[in-house]
Amino acid sequence: QVQLVESGGGLVQPGGSLRLSCAASGSIFTIVRMGWYRQAPGKQRDLVATITSGSSTNYADSVKGRFTISRDNAKNTVYLQMNSLKPEDTAVYYCNADGIEEGDYGPFDSWGQGTQVTVSS
To answer: Contact at 8 Å (CB) between 6 and 116?
Structure first.
């Protein structure tokens, strides 16, 4: 079992910044990719950004130039620095990680519980 715990959400004014963190723990052999997704009310869950163990990144067009994803492999932690926030960034943000578990060396694909980000004046 691999667990993900997110932190850092909250209420921020338009133009402001927030930093999300997500720490993975449990039976981890290696994490291949970590990422952030978001889901606004009444909408599907969409990709925000992902980062591989080799630090290759991928961003949704809507956040390019404003959000930065980074990763601390030693701590199994991924971060999302969000700048120039807009009301349309309001959503529940979910952390995701996929990789290989210890023991049986089977694959895992785990999700965090989500953290609310609200951008409003």
So the answer is: no
